[in-house]
Amino acid sequence: MRGVQRLVTLLAVCCLCLPLLSWSRDAGTVPLIDQQGAEFQLASLRGDVVLLVFGFTHCPHICPVEMARVSAALRELQDAQQAVRAVFITVDPGRDSPAVIRAYLENFQPGIIGLTGTAQNLDVVADYYRVKREPRMGAGEDYLVDHGYSLYLLNRQGEAEVAVLPGLPPSHIVDLARQLVAEQP
Fold first, then answer.
1. How many other CB atoms are there within 10 angstroms of residue 173's CB atom?
2. How confident is the model over 7-52, as pLDDT tens digits?
3. pLDDT (mean) for 77-97
4. Are 36 and 98 in contact (CB under 8 A)?
């Protein structure tokens, strides 16, 4: 058990040592489309702590697990009246329309914002956060998109504070989010 605790601590320290990112005008003001079909800009979330997830709705394994982890963390944070928002950004705009994203997000905690947009605009945002997107072609619509780990915690200024590695429990996300909420805006 002690070895596991050391590993989690080491992973958390590694995550905290990632180069800090901040929303540039290019990423924060890029027009995207939310799951209701309305224009949305990430810059509108400044002032909130944000869990930012990159994924796609046809992902068979990793994305549903990550979204379940985010949902569990959001439930706990909302129960403690911690103001944290969550955003899901697709890496597969060819299949992930607003309606598809809206249906997908119904499986998770309410209030998660789902975003799509033009491939060019999504490329700007994904590139900014260094999210690689590599389609692995299958037959027709049957393909996957490799995108690595892609859960970020953003502070109230819209800066990425931490990239959270897959597999860490929701309590890890909750602890990190609470730290960011406690910081002065």
1. 24
2. 444 444 444 434 444 444 458 889 999 999 999 999 999 999 999 9
3. 89
4. yes
pTM of the model: 0.82
The CA distance from 72 to 26, in Å, is 31
Phi, psi of 89 (to 5 degrees): -115, 125
Q: 10 to each of 15, 136, 167, how far by Cα in Å? A: 9, 32, 14
Q: In angstroms, how far is the first alpha carbon of the chain from the final one? A: 37
Q: What is the total residue count of the chain?
A: 185
Mean pLDDT, the chain, integer: 83
CB 53 within 8 A of CB 89: yes
CATH number at residue 21: 3.40.30.10
Determine the Cα–Cα distance for residues 117 and 104; give it in Å rounded to an integer: 16
Within 8 A by CB and 6+ apart from 25, the residues are: none
Q: Which two tokens stand for residue 67?
A: 């979204």
Per DSSP, the three-state class of 44 is: helix
158-171 pLDDT, tens digit each: 888 999 988 889 99
At residue 102, φ and ψ (nearest 5 deg) are -60, -45
Structural domain boundaries, residue 12: 2-182
